Amino acid sequence: MTEPRTAIVTGAARGIGAAVAQRLASDGFQIAVVDLDESSCAATVDAITSAGGTALAVGADVSNEEQVKAAIERIAAELGAPTVLVNNAGILRDNLLFKMTVEDWDLVMGVHLRGSFLMTKYAQKHMTEAGYGRIVNLSSTSALGNRGQANYSAAKAGLQGFTKTLAIELGKFGITANAIAPGFIQTDMTAATAERMKVPFDDFIKFSADQIPVQRVGQPEDIAHTASFLVSEGAGFVSGQVIYVAGGPKD
Ligand code: NAP
Predict the structure, then answer these.
(1) Tens of pLDDT along 5-31?
(2) Does 38 lie in the same domain as 128?
(3) Same domain, 157 and 44
(4) Dihedral over Cα of 152, 75, 238, 44: its sign
(5) Residues 210, 107 share a domain
(6) Ligand 1 mutation target, pool 14, 67, 118, 136, most atoms within 8 A of CB
(7) Cα 114 to ligand 1 centre (Å)
(8) For residue 103, what are the domain limits?
(9) Which residues form the Ketoreductase domain (predicted)?
(10) Would you say 180 and 138 are in contact if contact means Cβ atoms under 8 Å apart?
């Protein structure tokens, strides 16, 4: 990179988003750490700045158009035009279909699909003007179907179609769009799933690792490593792809 680029990572207060934010900062990006509550971004911002990087905490609900608009304007003004966007913010509202409420369906669609749409819609202006951009969307192996996740799996499959369409529409502006589809990653999200299933998290991890070809569960850094590649300048001919980062093949 000739001069630092600005990268936005949503849901970056913890988990995968925090690891991606820190990894991209160490790659030389200035990071907008976006999460629901600005104060919750402090730990990620501190980790980046204490390692010598630049980061800005930005509170925004990615499913709220006004908040997204204001967040992107602030990021562009304070850090410079964002040309990298990682749509990572996510929630679970798992339940079997017959028990799933309309509210839980809408909430999950709102954060994953509407949130990624809004963030991309307002960030792409800066990328098309720069003639350069990198977009990474967080899908999931659940896109292939997962019991108790009708809402989440539909949203994560939807993100794959969204990603491919972005790649087609934005390619001529020097912008790539790709999706990462993680398998089991050890975060608060998978800890919450273990709790919902009434299984101790350690047992859940061990059971899951036994089913995974590489015999371990993933760590947020596994996803950060893949994101680092996808947002690099050298990855300019990789677009519209879904990369499963799951310790084994998925299709
Ligand atoms: P996590 O630990 O639950 O972190 C998600 C972050 O997103 C939280 O900081 C959360 O903020 C934030 N967030 C939620 N709703 C938001 C909104 N409307 N606007 C802005 N930020 C919001 O989850 P994770 O495990 O790191 O997962 C990150 C992404 O990877 C998600 O998209 C998830 O679906 C995907 N993924 C995870 C796994 C896995 O095994 N962990 C596997 C496949 C895919 P609050 O703390 O305030 O709620």
Answers:
(1) 999 999 999 999 999 999 999 999 999
(2) yes
(3) yes
(4) negative
(5) no
(6) 14
(7) 15
(8) 6-183+220-245
(9) 5-183
(10) yes
